[in-house]
Amino acid sequence: MKDSSNKLNLPGFSVSVKALFTGYIMVVGIGLMMAGLQVMLTHGMADGKFGISVDDIVYSYYGNRSGSKLESKLNGSMADKASAEEKFIIIDWVQEGSADKEVWQETIKPIIDKNCIMCHAHMHGMELGEYEQLAAYAEVDEGASVSNLAKVSHIHLFGISFIFFFVGLIFVFAVGFNRWIKATIIIVPFVFLIIDITAWWLTKINPGFAWFVIIGGMGYSLAAAIMLLTSLYQMWIMPLRNKESNENVFIDIPKN
Ligand code: HEC
């Protein structure tokens, strides 16, 4: 009888185990792409140009301390929401008029009502209809607030570590890797996740750390992609090519 006990690895699994792993990999793969898209659409537009750059990271976390959030949004992701002249009037109100309340009543409110309110009337925490609400955005932009950073940090740490845990668990069953290389690929996403989130906080203090946000994010995306694609390949393509393996993925057997 053929001994199947030592085929607890990706190519050797039953179709049901492969179906379970593949379903998870598909959903996580789509989720990662959606996350990438969302990053592009929010942080990616922070400097007004599409695509992630160091400037985007600095604007998002450190802020644009030479100006207000209202100005950077009007030059960035909100640039198409008002005419050049209207934007000039708003920015002039912020810079020269120090967000004066009477000027707001006469000239600024009508522009906001016409161009912005259809979206910003009921966007929670982003309402712009009242003077106080708009004036808050006219203050110097200090980037992400500490409470917001704390919130997003813990959601990321808990949520993403869950994803990496299962992605890593599936990849544990991959065969044919040097054990140190494999262990490195498995630990790397966790390390880069910590680097990424630490760098958010450091960038808030000093814009010089923005690079680490990008390196961290790219590092764990790349490691996750390697694990997901390798796992799919070993489950579905390797058996087709009659490549089976007796590798025991649970125990490192010392080579004599
Ligand atoms: C079509 C809907 C829409 C319109 C019109 C619109 N906005 Fe926005 N605005 C958004 C969305 C969605 C966000 C959040 C995403 C982002 O920051 O780009 C946002 C974010 C902002 C923010 C940042 C809020 C924050 O707390 O991060 C400011 C400031 C802003 N808009 C100003 C304006 C101004 C001024 C106008 C009018 C000239 C305007 N918006 C018109 C949809 C809109």
Characterization of this structure:
This protein has two domains: 8-43 and 144-240, no CATH class; 67-137, no CATH class. With 256 residues, it is mainly α. The two termini are 28 Å apart. The chain is built from ten helices and no strands. It has helices at 15-41, 54-62, 69-74, 84-95, 101-115, 117-120, 131-137, 146-172, 179-205, 210-240. The longest helix has 31 residues, at 210-240.
Mean pLDDT: 89
Helix content: 55-70%
Chemical compounds bound to the protein: heme C
The number of distinct helices, counting runs of at least 4 residues, comes to 10
CA-to-CA gap between the ends? 28 Å
Radius of gyration: 25 Å
Beta-strand content bin: under 5%
Count the beta strands.
Answer: 0
Q: List low-confidence stretches.
A: none
Number of domains: 2
Element pattern in H and E: HHHHHHHHHH
Main sheet, how many strands, which sense, barrel?
A: none
Structural class: mainly alpha
What is the 3D form?
Answer: elongated
